[in-house]
From TrEMBL:
CDD domains: RecA-like_BCS1. Its cofactor is Mg(2+). Keywords: ATP-binding, Hydrolase, Magnesium, Nucleotide-binding. InterPro entries: AAA+_ATPase, AAA_N_dom, At3g28540-like_C, ATPase_AAA_core, ATPase_AAA_CS, Mitochondrial_chaperone_BCS1, P-loop_NTPase. This is AAA+ ATPase domain-containing protein. It comes from Xanthoceras sorbifolium. Residues 315-352, 473-507 are annotated as: Disordered.
Amino acid sequence: MVPPTMTEMWTTMGSTLASFMFIWAIIRQYCPYEVRRYFEKYTNRIMGCFYPYIKISIHEFTGDRLKRSEAYAAVEAYLSVNSSKTAKRLKAEMTRDSNNLVLSMDEYERVTDEFRGAKIWWVSSKVVSPSRPMSYYPEQEKRYYRLTFHKRYREMITEKYLEHVVREGKEIRMRNRQRKLYTNSPGYKWPSFKQTMWSHIVFEHPATFETMALEPEKKQEIIEDLLTFSKSKDFYARIGKAWKRGYLLYGPPGTGKSTMIAAMANLLNYDVYDLELTAVKDNTELRKLLIETTSKSIIVIEDIDCSLDLTGQRKKKAEKSSSDDEIEKEKSDKEISRKEAKEDSNNSSSSKVTLSGLLNFIDGLWSACGGERLIVFTTNYVEKLDPALIRRGRMDKHIELSYCSFKGFKVLAKNYLRVEDHHPMFDTIQRLMEEEDTNITPADVAENLMPKSPSDDAEKCLTSLIQALQETKDEAAKRKAEELKKDGGGGGDDDDDEHELVKGKYC
Ligand SMILES: Nc1ncnc2c1ncn2[C@@H]1O[C@H](COP(=O)(O)OP(=O)(O)OP(=O)(O)O)[C@@H](O)[C@H]1O
Ligand SMILES: [Mg+2]
């Protein structure tokens, strides 16, 4: 038998294709959905033999249909940025996790992308499955993105390009999302469909490092430390350490510990988990809470000294010591309010979180889950904490926040009064602030710089601050005189006593 010529072969193929297209058009027009799907399946197989392109679909909902596919969300975010320059039809939506309008490709829109010399075609589409007869449910739309590329790029696309798309997409989503402030405090719990251990609200604290009254060098050092941490994924993997870092913020009340946590979260774009230890039943519950936290977050335990004592037992009741000492008073207030919060929770069983449970929380095996996390403890009394709790490796960086310095005051003057240059009253303020006994917290400085009426100008606020500084100085002098009197002017011990007094005030 003579083999067909090229022309005969093309003619035969052409007519076969034409008949095939004709049959396909009739099927699309008249056949029920199931028959169409069946036919499609086999035609795709036949076409696959001649067609040099590969298609990959990413569907919005996977098997269980309840949870949106993370891959789909990442592709959507990736294309929202990469397609917005070329796509002609875009849709704008306000998603649940974002503050702004988010653009994405409209349905049936096509865009092209390039990766290492390969061209990739993306299309957004959907399959509409008809509603079943006698069913209450309307027809279902199953959205998907499909990418098409030449088969010679198969390995590169499946191994490198898709990874690149998902990674970039996740980063874009992270940047656009609304950040959250979580709490495990029982008072904030409300019934939810999925019972989680954390409840949350949108995190909208305006504090930044720029607005913080802090020595510029110290501020820069902290910022650099945080940024280095957030970019060190590969470094942590290389040295075999979980990607997390502990910060201990200590200092007197009103020196900006909580404010700094907000500034950290804003700098790194992290969520905040405010862990109320007194509301945690036991170590198991603590571990569950940890597992539920997500990556890119700060886990905060405020006033750690009030939550746990050195033996791991709960503190009974704030013991009243020197009523003169205002820091001590503040601390007891905190303990009492925590105790009250605990009683409010209607949880009669006492908490049994132990020190070892907490250490496990910080650096046990479970602490590595999730990755990219900061753990921050705050305290007014660093010397009362168990050294094991705050040793380097657990609390890697210890930051002391102390009384307001003149440089710190200048930041506040700029923020509150818009006074950036040297003001004639600054000299007096500097002199008073640099005196040994004039300890004033940034919170007190801020309060004095706050205009109390529309007519209050910078002079008035600065005068009020000078007055407050003077009063602090006088009070300190009076207290010192009383101490001396109490000790009967006893010669050699004076220095030690003074040292204790100063230490108690975090000077
Ligand atoms: N370093 C600072 N820079 C700017 N503002 C500050 C600073 N410290 C305190 N403030 C102001 O004082 C207020 C109280 O500060 P913050 O709550 O951060 O203190 P804290 O150290 O957490 O106190 P506490 O030990 O009682 O929890 C803040 O709302 C902020 O306005
Ligand atoms: Mg605080």
